Amino acid sequence: xxxxxxxxxxxxxxxxxxxxxxxxxxxxxxxxxxxxxxxxxxxxxxxxxxxxxxxxxxxxxxxxxxxxxxxxxxxxxxxxxxxxxxxxxxxxxxxxxxxxxxxxxxxxxxxxxxxxxxxxxxxxxxxxxxxxxxxxxxxxxxxxxxxxxxxxxxxxxxxxxxxxxxxxxxxxxxxxxxxxxxxxxxxxxxxxxxxxxxxxxxxxxxxxxxxxxxxxxxxxxxxxxxxxxxxxxxxxxxxxxxxxxxxxxxxxxxxxxxxxxxxx
Amino acid sequence: xxxxxxxxxxxxxxxxxxxxxxxxxxxxxxxxxxxxxxxxxxxxxxxxxxxxxxxxxxxxxxxxxxxxxxxxxxxxxxxxxxxxxxxxxxxxxxxxxxxxxxxxxxxxxxxxxxxxxxxxxxxxxxxxxxxxxxxxxxxxxxxxxxxxxxxxxxxxxxxxxxxxxxxxxxxxxxxxxxxxxxxxxxxxxxxxxxxxxxxxxxxxxxxxxxxxxxxxxxxxxxxxxxxxxxxxxxxxxxxxxxxxxxxxxxxxxxxxxxxxxxxxxxxxxxxxxxxxxxxxxxxxxxxxxxxxxxxxxxxxxxxxxxxxxxxxxxxxxxxxxxxxxxxxxxxxxxxxxxxxxxxxxxxxxxxxxxxxxxxxxxxxxxxxxxxxxxxxxxxxxxxxxxxxxxxxxxxxxxxxxxxxxxxxxxxxxxx
Lengths: 264, 415
Description:
The complex is a heterodimer.
Chain A: H1 2-10, H2 12-26, H3 36-55, H4 68-91, H5 93-96, H6 98-103, H7 110-136, H8 148-172, H9 175-189, H10 202-210, H11 212-226, H12 232-256, H13 260-263
Helix pairs in contact in A: 2-7, 3-4, 3-7, 4-7, 4-8, 4-9, 4-11, 7-8, 8-11, 8-12, 11-12
Chain B: E1 3-15, H1 19-27, E2 36-48, E3 53-57, H2 64-72, E4 79-85, E5 88-91, H3 104-114, H4 119-133, H5 148-161, E6 166-170, H6 178-193, E7 197-201, H7 205-211, E8 214-219, E9 222-227, H8 229-245, E10 250-252, E11 258-262, E12 267-276, E13 279-280, E14 283-285, E15 289-298, E16 302-312, E17 318-323, E18 331-334, E19 339-347, E20 353-362, E21 371-384, H9 408-414
Parallel strand pairs in B: 3-7, 3-8, 5-6, 6-7, 14-21
Antiparallel strand pairs in B: 1-2, 1-4, 8-9, 10-11, 11-21, 12-13, 12-15, 15-19, 16-17, 16-18, 16-20, 20-21
């Protein structure tokens, strides 16, 4: 473990460089470049605010601000976006970088780390735009924002562990990446992102509460919509699961990691 | 720095009877292993000392590339191990794992970072890499737009920009054009002189013999010989011929070319060889006297026989051909079981490179009348330049050069 960390530290230049290159190459042939990173979330936020507050007149129970439902959806989508991006990209990370893995000798864990850092950076930009909008609407969550940090840690650990495990397995069984596209769709609707959990019937509610993303997403919603601390009870499942998945991922990676190149 | 120690190295791939059996093996821990091991390398032992240049030869599938991958660490050994001491730079199967969507420059940064260089170091090296690769403005285009030659140019420039302790090259250079091949072999020699250990896989005999101190021959995953380049390559070629002779009419040679043997068979070729420096050899030196011997057996009584040879260059173009009829050495009244030995004596006034000898046994000067046996690529040999001044081309004309100063007045007078 310590050895892994040490060798990864030695390759920090490569890791940071790769994050930067990923970012650059995404907008290489565009005129506005990185500005798109800010424009597209801004557009989404505006759409949510306009559609849900004005057109659909959607209201949340307990909150009386006009745009509360828009904020509700966007904070869920923001959290889910990071989670699904990390998983989606991690699942394919070894297969897509086969060319490099076969020809160069470097700590393979660099690749999923690049994914996590890159996704986290994207998240950060969207998060900034969101904050600016909230400040403009005079709906800033204030000090409660600090709670985003522990949420992020649990969420990234969950996503990265699951992604790494699936990424390794995907090298041997390519079905995994196709399967995950389906799973993530269902998972999205099993998470209270678009709807508040309170509208669910009791039977389904207890089921949805088992979903680790429920706690995470509700945490974000508490902060941004209700301006209060996340419910710690809801964070128990995701935290425990994050630890279990982390250990599982470590086991799968150390058992099968070295065999990967032979299959690529 | 720069040593490689390979001990008891072996690599096996798992082969599963079906895709489902892997799933079974993974998730049903009680079931017995479903795979069989396919060994591609077994029990390899050798040591490369610092500054040494070692070549690895062997037919396709002998395990050369796998060995290099094990040494660079891209793939894990199944048994035994490799100890590498020093900074390794490797060019495996074309390119350095470039990312097709990134530009050449971005890829250079990435590759250098993976070699352990820091950003300021890379910034210093970048102009050197650019100028050596000579790919012009393509450096800022995505690598997917590159030709394979351009990729190799860039990869080679990166791999050698900062002197590595160990440089490993897997046939990458054969892709570059002649100009770049020359340029890169110059760079390789420079590195060799400055103490870099070299490990090279190549099918190019001349390249191996001119660069390497030692050649390791792999066959079917085992180390079959480790010795002086010339000896090892001779054995390698002998093994190839042995293999080829099991086939009758069309023998596929190692380089993918086909040795064609045709004819009616009344007289047949037993052996074709070159004698240089008093012994059988497949490597000849520019300008030295050679004896090309054709041995033949008579299987059916014939009145007349003409034995002919053609020496062809690597493109198959004839360089020189002659026969016993044109040389007025008639061979007549052959009886069954008779053995013949015909020798052609000539100086090796040939340029460096590979040549092949085709042999024809016919009844008359033209093989269209009656051809007993026609054997293409009966012998392949290479010419190396040991003691002559450098020259280009396929023939050695041994020019005398005189230089004298000519007074300006004299020139105008001549006009």
